[in-house]
Amino acid sequence: MENKYTNFAGDNLDNFLGHEMIEIKEDYVESKLVVTKDHKQPMGLVHGGIYSTLAETICSYGANFSGEGVFVGVNNNTDFLSSVTDGEIICKAEPIKKGKSFQLWECNISHNDKLVAVSKVRLSRIQ
Amino acid sequence: MENKYTNFAGDNLDNFLGHEMIEIKEDYVESKLVVTKDHKQPMGLVHGGIYSTLAETICSYGANFSGEGVFVGVNNNTDFLSSVTDGEIICKAEPIKKGKSFQLWECNISHNDKLVAVSKVRLSRIQ
Amino acid sequence: MENKYTNFAGDNLDNFLGHEMIEIKEDYVESKLVVTKDHKQPMGLVHGGIYSTLAETICSYGANFSGEGVFVGVNNNTDFLSSVTDGEIICKAEPIKKGKSFQLWECNISHNDKLVAVSKVRLSRIQ
Amino acid sequence: MENKYTNFAGDNLDNFLGHEMIEIKEDYVESKLVVTKDHKQPMGLVHGGIYSTLAETICSYGANFSGEGVFVGVNNNTDFLSSVTDGEIICKAEPIKKGKSFQLWECNISHNDKLVAVSKVRLSRIQ
User: Fold this and answer.
1) Domain-located, residue D1
2) N- or C-end of chain A: fewer Cβ atoms within 10 A?
3) Number of domains in chain D
């Protein structure tokens, strides 16, 4: 896999949370998370920050997968549409625009084929 | 503490991440996170999703601390201003508007007294 | 046309700007704006607020076109992707989620078939 | 006034809408709009796009007022808190961060001393 990110297999938030990549290719990233008690807020629902995190990760992976430059997220805007308490969350990210100095990606997050969160992640080139 | 949230001490994302409340009172919540390897993305920087998560939590805590109703986050918009690799992150949240059916809170996140992320969290009343 | 909005033809911002509806149906709204000097910022580019305004309008029209309730915009998040100096701007809006108490719509704005802005508009039911 | 913007007095959206600058200085811009029928949506309320536009303008003015570079808005995120039907709208903008390649500004918009909208505008350096 051609990607400027390193340490996929090592210590990082995604491994800590159990966030698993399913597919990373040009202009498309897909991943999943099997919900556990550690992903929830005190009411027992999956914490909103989990959706923001999943989106941030796979948009960043996509932005850095190919092409020139290293990109980091500068804004994450996530809407939470429905609550989830268990099962598997699927994330799919695609670029809205890939510019030289910035990229804008969107991520759709679903649970049992129902859309539960949508996210836009803006990334800026740092190298 | 008067708060409709429960299970603060039990299994949840904040405990899993090590997110510690410092102060929760009406119209103000403060918290901290001591950065570990588990909070980072593959480049070694604190993952953007961490800032979104911290903001989501303390804005939710604030929105549910007093008054009528139960509120859940429906949108989280976080800007990442500077990168952090270690040390302690401090979060401070205050309401922008507390309406009957929704609340809008903002959260400023700093590291060594430097602002590193800002977030707006919109919450909607569900009960 | 079944729509709870009134005064389409009278005094309002859209008529003032020259924003023309092309199609309003369930789950889809399309409109256009022919750029004039009055739509620009001092550098000669179409003002970002124009894209936000176009999106706000057609997402509101779509949200109020059918079904129960009256919805008003509570958040408008617009990304500007490319600059425009003249010609015709085309806007297309579709719902991401239509709930009982809120709706979330997205609007894609293009110029000569190139995407120049994207917007998400959240609407809350007030009646 | 030291500002890279030109054509303040000529044809542009702000003059067309009647948006008047009150004060532009380093790290602070203040402006006002006297509401007319041309600023409204069909229900008779000030159109959400007006708040987005006012914020976009004064944050852009602030970002370009001093220092190096020319900055243009790339994202406008505006929350509408209360409706307005007439009178005078006051806008106040301040920077959250002024970086070399981007700036993030916030704008608070009030009516009769009540906060009616808040906005964050991200600007990217183009020259």
Assistant:
1) no
2) C
3) 1
CATH number, position A79: 3.10.129.10
Cα of C97 to nearest chain B Cα, Å:
12
Eight-class DSSP state of C10? S
Q: Which residues of A touch B14 (CB under 8 A)?
A: 41, 47
Q: Which helix (H) or strand (E) holds A17?
A: helix A13-17
Cα B58 to the center of its chain, rounded Å: 3
pLDDT tens sequence across A55-80: 999 999 999 998 789 999 999 999 99
**What is the average pLDDT across A42-56?**
97
Within-domain flag for C1:
no
Q: What is the pTM of this model?
A: 0.95
Q: Residue D4 has what pLDDT?
A: 57
Is A2 a domain residue? no
Range of the domain at A61: 13-125
Residues 6 or more apart in contact with residue B113 via CB below 8 angstroms:
none
Q: Is residue C108 part of a domain?
A: yes
C113 CB-near residues (< 8 Å, 6+ apart): none
Chains near D with 3+ CB pairs less than 8 A apart are A, B, C
- C13-68 pLDDT, tens digit per residue, is 999 999 999 999 999 999 999 999 999 999 999 999 999 999 999 999 999 998 78
Q: Which residues in chain B are closer than 8 Å to D79, comparing Cβ atoms? A: 96, 104, 120, 122
